[in-house]
Design a protein that fits this description.
Strands 9, 13, 14, 17, 18, 19, 20, 21 and 22 form a 9-stranded mixed beta sheet that branches. This protein has a 5-stranded mixed beta barrel with strand order 4-5-6-8-7. It is of the alpha+beta class and about 550 residues long. The longest helix is centred in the middle third of the chain and has 21 residues. It is elongated and about 90 Å long. The structure holds one RNA strand of 76 nucleotides.
Length: about 550
RNA sequence: GAGACCGUAGCUCAGUCGGUAGAGCAACGGACUUUUAAUCCGUAGGUCCAGGGUUCGAGUCCCUGCGGUCUCACCA
């Protein structure tokens, strides 16, 4: 160690304390308090803390708190949620007579989010996953632990044991009897009132966003509830959850550019999966008649408020079903998910969800209209009239020369119709030529048995009566790949998938749901980055 | 990938016409045993994203780069 001043020596020899060139007096102050805790024999990194109760549960026990008068009589507290304007609890207590607060013993732990030091009494708000509660920590009341209480900083994690009561201003509080130091925070937390507002910081440091930005924790807990509800609904209907490979040698099942990677031992290039479809259908062939996967797919495409390069997708396949079966399933999945996140809403309001300044009415059944009907409604043009559609397309600046009429029609649809579909609405019966992997209607081969669910102009679900004719499938694959070089098309033709179909895939309905987008709609989040914990960002620096 | 806007203290933000860098919160010292974004007195805290240019002088004007937000495109 290089020779240095005595003071610096002492500093740098503190175990587990990296050399402080002291750019941050804020950190230095926190480390000084940490050192004081060590002097007191307290581990600043804490340890196991058993039998704590969730703050949300503790808050529910307000009714057990009473005001006990000197003669032993117990008086129920006023209903603080419904007290008259200008109610003064201090006065109320004086009116009842001299007494003391009596409540259940509780034990809680959480991060310190507010700290009001009043000398020999400190008011500390702690927060756990379920909510906030105020601690009253008095010098006399906590005894030896007062020395610990004096070292507390915003952001530290503490445990507390004491009696539940109500302060003079009517605030539910834990009257601390013991204070347990659980974890030191050596960084300064965000501003206590505004929290984090810079979207970049919120995403990069999601751990801070979760604790300090209003609504973030409940939103991500809702996401978990939605996903759990979907799994429950599917399980109730006999669907089997599986895990397909995420590393594919052929990235099939959707039109998107894949991420590439490499396996060293086999020395082969691999792709991150862009869809779940082709392996789930193999499992239909294998006899898993109701099968789904809810998992991550990866698409090497742009980033937008509706797109993240990795996102969560649900794909469901039901043997002996068709797209109508999938429509009923979709509606059930979404309605059950809504019930899961809005358990406390009245039945009348449950399905009316806020979306920005608007409201989305999810009350089932959702509207169902055909592609052709909607085309006619929104554009005033008969979709069967190819000349009129081409004319409309040209007026919208859509290239028409040498393109299939259905492709042109669909571009018009995307341009003029989709944004108007506030929904929820099932759009059914697409032109067959734009969905090659779909079975056609028996009585009209120009129409595919497909639907998409639109809500607020966003495509939420996409379903088919699946094509199970191996010869037709192979032919369609080939024509899809026709534009590519032979080398590319060989690479992308999934021969094993065709072989599987040749062994016989039962007739089936298939469904895909964009989980992130569904969560956006059910949690009133205008950007996908608010429902993905760690969205892709450029690395720092 | 293209365009517009943005980057100032740990956090949230001001900064006029180009003329010595500001506030609140957080921090530090002090007072206070019923506070509510506690209050009061005092102190300290800056590579103004980075690099270059114009200028007597740049947080401010210009260029380049980095990062972000929004819109558009690919995609779901």
């Amino acid at each position: 160690m290089p020779s240095t001043t005595t003071a610096a020596m002492t500093e740098s020899e503190t175990p587990h304390s990296p050399a402080q060139d002291d750019q941050s007096t804020l950190e230095a102050a926190r480390r000084a308090k940490m050192a004081r805790l060590v002097e007191l024999g307290v581990d600043p990194w804490g340890g196991r803390f058993d039998d704590r109760q969730l703050i949300g549960d503790i808050r529910g026990r307000l009714g057990e708190v009473v005001y006990r008068l000197e003669d032993g009589a117990e008086v129920a507290l006023p209903d603080f949620a419904n007290v008259p304007e200008g109610f003064n609890f201090r006065q109320w207590k004086a009116d009842q007579g001299k007494g003391e607060m009596v409540g259940p013993q509780v034990r809680a732990a959480g991060r310190i989010v507010l700290h009001r030091d009043k000398g020999k009494l400190q008011f500390i708000d702690i927060r756990d996953m379920s909510g906030d509660i105020q601690l009253m920590v008095g010098q006399k009341q906590v005894g030896d632990d007062w020395e610990i209480a004096k070292q507390l900083d915003l952001g530290d994690i503490v445990g507390v044991e004491g009696m539940l009561g109500v302060s003079n201003t009517g605030e539910l509080s834990i009257f601390a009897e013991r204070v347990f130091f659980l974890t030191k925070s050596i960084e300064t937390p965000p501003e206590k009132h505004h929290g984090l507002s810079d979207p970049e910081l919120r995403q990069r440091q999601r751990y801070l966003d979760l604790t300090y930005t209003d609504g973030v924790m409940p939103r991500f807990l809702d996401r978990t509830r939605i996903v759990a509800s979907i799994r429950r609904t599917l399980a109730e209907q006999g669907f089997v959850e599986v895990e397909g490979p995420t590393l594919h040698s052929i990235a099939g099942g959707a039109a998107a550019r894949p991420f590439t990677t490499h396996h060293n031992a086999l020395d082969i290039d691999l792709f991150m999966r862009i869809a779940l479809e082709l392996h789930l259908k193999r499992l239909l062939v294998g006899g898993i008649e109701r099968v789904y996967e809810l998992g991550r797919v990866y698409r090497n495409e742009g980033i937008s408020p509706k797109h993240n390069p990795e996102f969560t997708m649900l794909e469901v396949y039901q043997a002996f079903g068709d797209y109508n079966a999938m429509m009923d399933l979709t509606e059930g999945l979404i309605c059950d998910a809504i019930k899961a996140v809005r358990a406390d809403a009245s039945p009348a309001d449950r399905y009316k969800l806020p979306w920005g300044d608007a409201t989305i009415d999810f009350t089932p059944p959702f509207a169902r209209k055909t592609y052709a009907e909607l085309f006619q409604e929104q554009t005033g043009v008969d979709p069967a009239d190819e000349a009129a559609v081409a004319k409309l397309a040209t007026s919208l600046g859509i290239e028409t020369a040498g393109r299939h009429p259905d492709v042109i029609k669909n571009e018009v649809f995307e341009e003029k119709v989709e944004d108007a579909l506030l929904g929820p609405i099932f759009v059914t019966d697409y032109p067959a030529s734009i969905c090659p992997l779909t079975k056609r209607k028996r009585d009209n081969p120009a129409i595919a048995e497909r639907f998409e669910l639109f809500i607020q102009g966003m495509e939420i679900a996409n379903a088919y009566t699946e094509l199970n004719d191996p010869d037709l499938q192979e032919e369609l694959f080939k024509s899809q790949l026709a534009g590519l070089s032979e080398e590319d098309s060989m690479a992308k033709m999934d021969h094993d998938f065709i072989r599987a179909l040749r062994h016989g895939m039962p007739p089936a309905g298939g469904l895909g749901v964009g989980i992130d987008r569904l969560v956006m709609l059910l949690t009133n989040s205008q950007t996908i980055r608010d429902v993905i914990l760690f969205p892709l960002l450029r690395p720092e620096k």
